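Narrative progress, year one. The postdoctoral researcher (J.K.) led the effort to move from monomer predictions toward full complexes, under supervision of the PI. The following entry was the first complex the group processed end to end, covering 466 residues in total.
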Amino acid sequence: MKNILLASTSTLFNGDYLDYLLPVLKTHFKNCKTILFIPYARPGGISYDAYTKKASDAFKIIDIEIKGLHEFKHPVEAIKNAEGMFTGGGNTFVLLNELYKNNCVDILKNVISDGTPYLGTSAGSNICGQNIKTTNDMPIVYPPSFNALQLVPFNINPHYLDPEVNSKHMGETRETRINEFHTQNNLPVIGLREGSWLEVKNETILLKGNLEARIFEKDQKPYEIKPDTLITF
Amino acid sequence: MKNILLASTSTLFNGDYLDYLLPVLKTHFKNCKTILFIPYARPGGISYDAYTKKASDAFKIIDIEIKGLHEFKHPVEAIKNAEGMFTGGGNTFVLLNELYKNNCVDILKNVISDGTPYLGTSAGSNICGQNIKTTNDMPIVYPPSFNALQLVPFNINPHYLDPEVNSKHMGETRETRINEFHTQNNLPVIGLREGSWLEVKNETILLKGNLEARIFEKDQKPYEIKPDTLITF
């Protein structure tokens, strides 16, 4: 009964917040008047209120009201009662840490598994993988575990970035980093480019958007999959 | 009595491994016939043997022999007895995790504080800060703690990268990431560009190389410091 959208990014270059996704979100959240927004990831250190306002402004365009999880005294109850949910991007470590602190990990996993429509962007998508070991974020806090919501049987690398051929920078490319992941872990990883998202309907997972995604499996050469490819591992 | 070099990178664009540092290393390790190499960070998943060979080939040019820490049955004893030490770059999480696993954190901290000459590059520099919360690396393993060797009173961000003005990528810039760090932490951070290193002689810390470094302090605008600036926080 899962009904999940996992987007690489909230915002495209030169775009407004969530604008490229709004037509899809209108359908995805068609039975929701109000959506619970999880602002814990705080991109750039923005406040919960400011972040919730940003989400609210975007969802207003499709006539959906947003409530921030931080506005509730009992976050677990708020998640239980939500008609739909959206977790915004920012820092994945901060996000997961707050979810653990507020005892939200299990309940989130349960209600999303039971069918509450969910949208994640960036860090909010990352936490739906098996663990956060393929995030691009800086580990600015130490969460009690890297284990995540495990709603899909793989890991996600959002904002996937192809190597820049003319770069003179000697830091690791994204592909090198994911290869390093596979020296320590066996899980497949989906490199999701900005503009792509995964649509999860029950156990059926499709790549959506106009771009290909790059798939990394242990001991295999990375390969590309086309939009509308069914993802099965 | 500290005698430490902390380099942003081992290799410059179009350069060979460690070549730009060799004249400095010749002086730094002038009393060493053999240096203990810590290969735990495994850049790109390279084997300990292959990584040690790479370090060995570079140090051969200045007539210094390299022994890999993994070649010793008792790593703690090997560190105690080392004439000098070098920790190479790669994945900071893997490096710190292995140091904890092999009980090397305290002994490393002690011998380096007591004067064993040390070189770190990239991840090997990162671990000399207070913690690894400003690494750029992917968190591919979960170390028992993010606390590091704490040999300098700040954190390091190696391979520091200025924002690319023409980028269409919506992932966070390095500066944004470090600003996010300061929403959760108070430590100063030194953004060390490729080609820069810190020279630590006892408690005197100098920026070396030809480039400026970018300093991030909580609640302050980031600022640049020139080569040979004394670093005091």
